[in-house]
Protein backbone atom coordinates (compact mmCIF):
# COMPACT_ATOMS: atom_id res chain seq x y z
CA UNK A 1 0.00 0.00 0.00
CA UNK A 2 1.12 3.59 -0.65
CA UNK A 3 1.26 5.98 2.29
CA UNK A 4 -0.08 9.41 1.50
CA UNK A 5 -0.17 11.03 4.91
CA UNK A 6 0.71 10.36 8.53
CA UNK A 7 -0.08 11.78 11.98
CA UNK A 8 1.88 11.01 15.13
CA UNK A 9 0.90 12.15 18.60
CA UNK A 10 2.03 11.50 22.14
CA UNK A 11 -0.50 12.00 24.90
CA UNK A 12 -0.56 11.72 28.67
CA UNK A 13 -2.69 8.81 29.86
CA UNK A 14 -5.33 11.10 31.35
CA UNK A 15 -8.97 10.20 30.83
CA UNK A 16 -9.75 13.70 29.56
CA UNK A 17 -7.67 12.76 26.47
CA UNK A 18 -10.02 9.93 25.47
CA UNK A 19 -12.31 12.35 23.68
CA UNK A 20 -9.48 14.37 22.16
CA UNK A 21 -7.66 11.33 20.77
CA UNK A 22 -10.68 9.80 19.01
CA UNK A 23 -11.74 13.15 17.56
CA UNK A 24 -8.18 13.94 16.41
CA UNK A 25 -7.73 10.58 14.65
CA UNK A 26 -11.19 10.75 13.07
CA UNK A 27 -10.58 14.30 11.91
CA UNK A 28 -7.19 13.42 10.36
CA UNK A 29 -8.69 10.31 8.71
CA UNK A 30 -11.51 12.29 7.16
CA UNK A 31 -9.22 13.47 4.35
CA UNK A 32 -10.39 10.21 2.79
CA UNK A 33 -13.96 10.73 1.73
CA UNK A 34 -15.88 8.65 4.23
CA UNK A 35 -19.36 8.14 5.60
CA UNK A 36 -20.54 9.22 9.05
CA UNK A 37 -20.67 5.51 9.99
CA UNK A 38 -17.05 4.92 8.99
CA UNK A 39 -15.97 7.97 10.98
CA UNK A 40 -17.93 6.65 13.95
CA UNK A 41 -16.28 3.23 13.61
CA UNK A 42 -12.81 4.81 13.79
CA UNK A 43 -13.76 6.93 16.80
CA UNK A 44 -15.12 3.91 18.65
CA UNK A 45 -12.04 1.73 18.09
CA UNK A 46 -9.62 4.53 19.08
CA UNK A 47 -11.66 5.25 22.19
CA UNK A 48 -11.48 1.60 23.30
CA UNK A 49 -7.74 1.26 22.74
CA UNK A 50 -6.84 4.58 24.37
CA UNK A 51 -9.08 3.84 27.37
CA UNK A 52 -7.28 0.52 27.84
CA UNK A 53 -3.93 2.35 28.00
CA UNK A 54 -5.33 4.64 30.69
CA UNK A 55 -7.23 2.05 32.71
CA UNK A 56 -5.02 -1.04 32.36
CA UNK A 57 -1.54 -0.24 31.03
CA UNK A 58 -0.93 2.69 33.36
CA UNK A 59 -3.41 1.83 36.10
CA UNK A 60 -1.55 3.50 38.97
CA UNK A 61 0.47 6.07 37.10
CA UNK A 62 0.41 8.55 34.24
CA UNK A 63 2.36 7.36 31.21
CA UNK A 64 2.57 8.26 27.54
CA UNK A 65 0.28 6.98 24.80
CA UNK A 66 1.79 6.92 21.30
CA UNK A 67 -0.67 7.14 18.43
CA UNK A 68 0.16 6.88 14.72
CA UNK A 69 -2.48 7.30 12.04
CA UNK A 70 -1.48 6.48 8.46
CA UNK A 71 -3.59 7.18 5.42
CA UNK A 72 -3.07 4.97 2.34
CA UNK A 73 -3.86 5.88 -1.23
CA UNK A 74 -5.84 2.65 -1.59
CA UNK A 75 -8.43 4.03 0.83
CA UNK A 76 -7.21 2.42 4.02
CA UNK A 77 -6.63 3.99 7.44
CA UNK A 78 -4.17 2.28 9.77
CA UNK A 79 -4.02 3.38 13.40
CA UNK A 80 -1.61 2.11 16.01
CA UNK A 81 -1.98 2.87 19.71
CA UNK A 82 1.01 1.98 21.86
CA UNK A 83 1.82 2.16 25.55
CA UNK A 84 4.84 1.33 27.67
CA UNK A 85 2.69 0.00 30.48
CA UNK A 86 2.25 -3.32 32.29
CA UNK A 87 1.59 -5.48 29.21
CA UNK A 88 -0.89 -8.33 28.80
CA UNK A 89 0.15 -11.81 30.06
CA UNK A 90 -2.32 -13.70 27.84
CA UNK A 91 -3.51 -11.74 24.80
CA UNK A 92 -5.78 -14.51 23.52
CA UNK A 93 -7.65 -14.60 26.82
CA UNK A 94 -7.78 -10.79 27.02
CA UNK A 95 -9.46 -10.70 23.59
CA UNK A 96 -12.26 -13.05 24.66
CA UNK A 97 -15.66 -11.33 24.86
CA UNK A 98 -16.60 -10.26 28.40
CA UNK A 99 -13.13 -10.98 29.81
CA UNK A 100 -11.92 -8.23 32.12
CA UNK A 101 -9.13 -8.31 34.68
CA UNK A 102 -10.66 -5.55 36.77
CA UNK A 103 -13.95 -5.40 38.60
CA UNK A 104 -16.16 -2.34 38.86
CA UNK A 105 -18.07 -1.33 35.77
CA UNK A 106 -15.69 -2.53 33.02
CA UNK A 107 -17.63 -4.71 30.62
CA UNK A 108 -14.78 -6.73 29.11
CA UNK A 109 -16.10 -5.88 25.64
CA UNK A 110 -13.35 -3.48 24.53
CA UNK A 111 -11.56 -5.91 22.22
CA UNK A 112 -14.85 -7.30 20.86
CA UNK A 113 -15.94 -3.77 19.98
CA UNK A 114 -12.55 -3.04 18.36
CA UNK A 115 -12.89 -6.20 16.25
CA UNK A 116 -16.46 -5.42 15.19
CA UNK A 117 -15.73 -1.92 13.98
CA UNK A 118 -12.39 -2.46 12.24
CA UNK A 119 -11.34 -4.65 9.32
CA UNK A 120 -8.14 -5.98 10.86
CA UNK A 121 -6.94 -5.88 14.47
CA UNK A 122 -3.52 -6.89 15.77
CA UNK A 123 -2.51 -6.89 19.43
CA UNK A 124 1.14 -7.26 20.43
CA UNK A 125 2.10 -7.19 24.07
CA UNK A 126 4.91 -8.06 26.42
CA UNK A 127 4.59 -8.05 30.19
CA UNK A 128 6.57 -5.18 31.67
CA UNK A 129 7.27 -3.68 28.24
CA UNK A 130 3.93 -2.57 26.87
CA UNK A 131 1.17 -3.13 24.34
CA UNK A 132 0.53 -2.08 20.75
CA UNK A 133 -2.92 -2.30 19.22
CA UNK A 134 -3.00 -1.75 15.46
CA UNK A 135 -6.16 -1.64 13.40
CA UNK A 136 -7.02 -1.04 9.78
CA UNK A 137 -10.22 0.33 8.36
CA UNK A 138 -11.04 0.02 4.69
CA UNK A 139 -12.87 3.16 3.64
CA UNK A 140 -15.58 2.54 1.09
CA UNK A 141 -16.75 6.14 1.31
CA UNK A 142 -19.83 8.02 0.26
CA UNK A 143 -19.43 7.04 -3.39
CA UNK A 144 -20.48 3.44 -2.70
CA UNK B 1 -23.65 15.25 32.59
CA UNK B 2 -26.78 17.05 33.73
CA UNK B 3 -29.63 14.63 33.10
CA UNK B 4 -33.26 15.54 32.53
CA UNK B 5 -35.85 13.56 34.47
CA UNK B 6 -39.48 12.68 33.85
CA UNK B 7 -41.69 10.85 36.33
CA UNK B 8 -45.04 9.52 35.19
CA UNK B 9 -47.10 6.65 36.61
CA UNK B 10 -44.20 5.00 38.44
CA UNK B 11 -41.96 5.28 35.37
CA UNK B 12 -38.81 7.31 35.80
CA UNK B 13 -37.23 8.42 32.52
CA UNK B 14 -33.64 9.61 32.72
CA UNK B 15 -32.59 11.48 29.56
CA UNK B 16 -28.86 11.26 28.90
CA UNK B 17 -26.99 13.80 26.82
CA UNK B 18 -23.56 13.97 25.19
CA UNK B 19 -20.76 11.41 25.02
CA UNK B 20 -20.41 8.32 27.21
CA UNK B 21 -16.85 7.10 27.71
CA UNK B 22 -14.64 6.09 30.63
CA UNK B 23 -13.98 9.77 31.41
CA UNK B 24 -17.61 10.89 31.50
CA UNK B 25 -19.21 7.70 32.88
CA UNK B 26 -18.69 8.33 36.63
CA UNK B 27 -20.59 11.65 36.62
CA UNK B 28 -23.38 10.16 34.49
CA UNK B 29 -23.61 7.17 36.82
CA UNK B 30 -23.88 9.47 39.82
CA UNK B 31 -26.70 11.53 38.26
CA UNK B 32 -28.67 8.40 37.32
CA UNK B 33 -28.21 6.82 40.74
CA UNK B 34 -29.25 10.04 42.49
CA UNK B 35 -32.37 10.19 40.33
CA UNK B 36 -33.23 6.58 41.18
CA UNK B 37 -32.69 7.20 44.90
CA UNK B 38 -34.81 10.35 44.97
CA UNK B 39 -37.66 8.81 42.95
CA UNK B 40 -37.78 5.65 45.02
CA UNK B 41 -41.39 4.87 44.09
CA UNK B 42 -40.56 4.35 40.43
CA UNK B 43 -40.84 0.70 39.41
CA UNK B 44 -39.61 1.15 35.83
CA UNK B 45 -36.43 3.06 35.03
CA UNK B 46 -35.98 4.14 31.41
CA UNK B 47 -32.60 5.37 30.22
CA UNK B 48 -33.35 7.58 27.23
CA UNK B 49 -30.39 7.73 24.81
CA UNK B 50 -31.92 10.29 22.37
CA UNK B 51 -29.29 12.85 23.30
CA UNK B 52 -26.30 10.49 23.34
CA UNK B 53 -23.87 11.40 20.54
CA UNK B 54 -21.13 8.84 21.26
CA UNK B 55 -20.75 5.71 23.35
CA UNK B 56 -18.06 3.04 23.68
CA UNK B 57 -18.01 -0.09 25.85
CA UNK B 58 -17.98 2.13 28.96
CA UNK B 59 -21.68 2.61 28.19
CA UNK B 60 -22.20 -1.14 28.48
CA UNK B 61 -20.69 -1.08 31.97
CA UNK B 62 -22.91 1.85 32.82
CA UNK B 63 -26.11 0.11 31.72
CA UNK B 64 -25.17 -3.24 33.28
CA UNK B 65 -24.25 -1.49 36.51
CA UNK B 66 -27.63 0.26 36.63
CA UNK B 67 -29.35 -3.09 36.05
CA UNK B 68 -27.43 -4.60 38.97
CA UNK B 69 -28.46 -1.65 41.11
CA UNK B 70 -32.20 -1.69 40.39
CA UNK B 71 -32.91 -5.42 39.92
CA UNK B 72 -32.47 -6.28 43.64
CA UNK B 73 -34.92 -3.43 44.45
CA UNK B 74 -37.52 -5.15 42.28
CA UNK B 75 -37.38 -2.42 39.64
CA UNK B 76 -37.16 -2.94 35.89
CA UNK B 77 -34.71 -1.23 33.55
CA UNK B 78 -35.23 -0.31 29.89
CA UNK B 79 -33.05 1.54 27.39
CA UNK B 80 -34.74 3.67 24.70
CA UNK B 81 -33.75 5.61 21.58
CA UNK B 82 -30.42 3.94 20.95
CA UNK B 83 -28.46 4.76 17.82
CA UNK B 84 -27.80 1.74 15.58
CA UNK B 85 -24.17 1.61 16.73
CA UNK B 86 -24.95 1.91 20.46
CA UNK B 87 -27.63 -0.76 20.06
CA UNK B 88 -25.12 -3.10 18.43
CA UNK B 89 -22.53 -2.48 21.18
CA UNK B 90 -25.03 -3.03 24.01
CA UNK B 91 -26.29 -6.23 22.42
CA UNK B 92 -22.81 -7.76 22.54
CA UNK B 93 -23.15 -7.97 26.32
CA UNK B 94 -26.39 -9.96 26.27
CA UNK B 95 -28.03 -7.29 28.45
CA UNK B 96 -31.17 -7.27 26.27
CA UNK B 97 -32.23 -10.51 27.99
CA UNK B 98 -32.39 -8.58 31.26
CA UNK B 99 -33.34 -5.09 30.10
CA UNK B 100 -35.21 -4.34 26.84
CA UNK B 101 -33.21 -2.28 24.31
CA UNK B 102 -35.06 -0.04 21.86
CA UNK B 103 -33.56 1.73 18.87
CA UNK B 104 -34.30 5.24 17.64
CA UNK B 105 -37.34 5.01 15.41
CA UNK B 106 -35.77 7.02 12.58
CA UNK B 107 -32.72 4.75 12.44
CA UNK B 108 -34.46 1.36 12.37
CA UNK B 109 -35.21 1.61 8.65
CA UNK B 110 -31.64 2.37 7.66
CA UNK B 111 -29.95 0.08 10.16
CA UNK B 112 -26.89 -1.36 8.43
CA UNK B 113 -25.97 -3.63 11.33
CA UNK B 114 -28.77 -6.22 11.42
N1 LIG C 1 -3.10 -1.64 26.92
C1 LIG C 1 -3.29 -2.63 27.83
N2 LIG C 1 -2.35 -2.88 28.79
C2 LIG C 1 -2.54 -3.86 29.69
N3 LIG C 1 -3.63 -4.67 29.73
C3 LIG C 1 -4.58 -4.48 28.81
C4 LIG C 1 -4.48 -3.45 27.81
N4 LIG C 1 -5.57 -3.52 27.02
C5 LIG C 1 -6.32 -4.52 27.50
N5 LIG C 1 -5.75 -5.11 28.57
C6 LIG C 1 -6.27 -6.29 29.31
O1 LIG C 1 -7.25 -6.93 28.51
C7 LIG C 1 -8.51 -7.03 29.23
C8 LIG C 1 -9.67 -6.92 28.28
O2 LIG C 1 -9.74 -5.62 27.70
P1 LIG C 1 -11.15 -5.07 27.18
O3 LIG C 1 -11.71 -6.09 26.24
O4 LIG C 1 -10.95 -3.71 26.66
O5 LIG C 1 -12.08 -5.07 28.47
P2 LIG C 1 -12.10 -4.06 29.74
O6 LIG C 1 -11.30 -2.84 29.38
O7 LIG C 1 -13.54 -3.77 29.93
O8 LIG C 1 -11.49 -4.81 30.89
C9 LIG C 1 -8.42 -5.95 30.28
O9 LIG C 1 -9.24 -6.22 31.39
C10 LIG C 1 -6.93 -5.95 30.63
O10 LIG C 1 -6.63 -6.99 31.53
MG1 LIG D 1 -11.38 -1.82 27.60
Structure description:
The complex is a heterodimer of chains A (144) and B (114). A 5-stranded antiparallel sheet of chain A has the order 1-2-3-5-4, with helices on one face. Chain A has 4 helices and 5 strands. Chain A has helices spanning 17-29, 36-57, 91-94, 110-117; strands spanning 3-12, 64-72, 76-83, 120-126, 130-138. In chain A, a hairpin with a 3-residue loop joins strand 4 and strand 5. The mean pLDDT of chain A is 96. The radius of gyration of chain A is 15 Å and the shape is globular. With 144 residues, chain A is an alpha+beta fold. Chain A has one domain (3-138): Heat Shock Protein 90. Chain B has 114 residues and is an alpha/beta fold. Chain B has a single domain (3-111), classed as STAS domain (Transcription Regulator spoIIAA), CATH 3.30.750.24. Helices cover 35% and strands 32% of the residues of chain B. Chain B has 4 helices and 5 strands, in the order E-E-H-E-H-E-H-E-H. Chain B has helices at residues 25-38, 57-70, 84-91, 105-108, and strands at residues 4-8, 11-20, 44-55, 76-82, 101-103. In chain B, strand 3, helix 2 and strand 4 form a beta-alpha-beta unit. In chain B, helix 1 packs parallel to helix 2. The longest helix of chain B has 14 residues, at 25-38. Chain B is globular. Chain B starts with a strand and ends in a 6-residue tail after the last helix. The model of chain B has no long low-confidence stretch (mean pLDDT 93). At the A-B interface, helix 1, helix 2 and helix 4 of A face helix 2 and helix 3 of B. The complex binds adenosine-5'-diphosphate and magnesium ion.
